[in-house]
Amino acid sequence: MDTLIGAGVGSTTAVAVGVTHKNSVLLRSAPIGSLILRKPIFPANSLRIRRRPAAAVRAEAAIDLSDPDWKLKYERDFEERFNIPHITDVFPDAEAIRSTFCLKMRSPTAEFSGGYPSDEEWHGYINNKDRVLLKVIKYSSPTSAGAVCIDPDCTWIEQWVHRAGPREKIYFRPEKVKAAIVTCGGLCPGLNDVIRHIVITLEIYGVKNVVGIPFGYRGFSDKNLPEMPLSRKVVQNIHLSGGSLLGVSRGGPPVGEIVDSMEERGINMLFVLGGNGTHAGANAIHNECLKRRMKVAVVGVPKTIDNDILHMDKTFGFDTAVEEAQRAINSAYIEAHSAYHGIGVVKLMGRSSGFIAMQASLASGQVDICLIPEVHFNLHGPHGVLKHLKYLIETKGSAVICVAEGAGQSFLENTNAKDASGNKVLGDIGVHIQQETKKYFKEIGVSADVKYIDPTYMIRAVRANASDGILCTVLGQNAVHGAFAGYSGITVGIINTHYAYLPIPQVIAYAKSVDPNSRMWHRCLTSTGQPDFI
């Protein structure tokens, strides 16, 4: 998770959220009050603490399930929390004009800033009241695999979020727009694809002034980093390469300096590509603009290769990462299978969530052991990973381990070091497993040939595959549609295969993680055949 430095963005607050009920515990699944029912993993009547961004926390009474109107109150609370900010909240008299976006004419439309000269009505717009269903599974019991329930009876409550897409009315005149794009954090497949389609869609609306801010938020304050003019001609083929045309960096100046720079440059649309920390920064920029009564649309596009953004099916770059990880896993398998008592260890991305390791293991069919941050394991002991490796060598002759980078950190020395984003610097669990495996087999007098592969930077730098290319295209387009529709402080994502707008605070509360009781993790365990290493 990358974090904007300054103004307190990215700080965390411990919030007590546990309420016991018989053999279950009510937990907040979002920063502002939704409750989910899951089996307790801590003693009854104890209080569970979850770390969450301070910006996402507010005082609120827990839902009283004994209240006969609790369901109605829950629905109202949910609707309030997932309502997306609009410039008319601050500028009630803001002018709404007919949209300049219409695919009956695909050339830039600056000369038609008041709308297309057509008497025909185009039916390609999204109604502001259109919604997308956030949850689609109706659980009948809290004990169902992966169950997420609001109360002990798993009462079904429809949870709707705003559908993304072009609106019939827009709140910015294209000829008066100066749009800026910034990419923050680390590299991720698909960055150039998103940049490309933001620029192309802006031009279709009629915007002529589009710039890129170089090297993340830093580009707002570093006078040696001039903004980069962008146009369809500039971005036409950038999706054919990995990386970011604009460059990336972690951290950045205080929010006030960023907004000062935006005012000075005349930027009134800002598109921010990044993860949880970057989105926290975007939300802080949005709030500062509101405080200064600036008519600015700030729209995020969630970029995290780890796929750890809340509520969304997936984030761009994830599919590509899983696909590229197959090369590393297959190489480890060939090395292990070709050696006498060969063991291949592959470390994949995933600081706090094991989605890449889990999905890559499932896809490959060559992994014997998958280790992720969400599931505790022991290396040593009668039920440890090393004991199972011995069994695999005896029965199969070789083995492959896939481990997420954030797994098993308790086995490593804690240096308390942090990177520029404020993230804890992780120890290398892959090297540790390699060393402990060699040591273990030497101690028991069994020959073992252990190979370690870390493809992290190779995976991050590749271009997006076809699946991610489509996702990036739609995300980029919908980001522009959201900005022109007058929304700000939002991000765009895919939810149950449909695209939606979400208020940023609802997606940055904490990182999404693999549910050890989910069907997908159970499928992974079925594929690998591994036991519980506890």
UniProtKB/TrEMBL annotation:
EC class name: transferase
Annotated compartments: Cytoplasm
Enzyme Commission number(s) of this protein: 2.7.1.11
Listed cofactors: Mg(2+)
Reaction(s) catalysed by this chain's protein: beta-D-fructose 6-phosphate + ATP = beta-D-fructose 1,6-bisphosphate + ADP + H(+)
Annotated ranges, domain Phosphofructokinase: 179-481
TM spans (from-to): none
Binding of substrate, residues: T304, I305, D306, M349, G350, R351, E405, Y457, M458, I459, R460
Positions with a binding annotation for ATP: G186, R250, G251, G275, N276, G277, T278
Catalytic residues, chain numbering: D306
Organism domain of life: Eukaryota
Its job: Catalyzes the phosphorylation of D-fructose 6-phosphate to fructose 1,6-bisphosphate by ATP, the first committing step of glycolysis.
Subunit structure: Homotetramer.
Name of the protein: ATP-dependent 6-phosphofructokinase
Species whose genome carries this gene: Microthlaspi erraticum
Gene: PFK
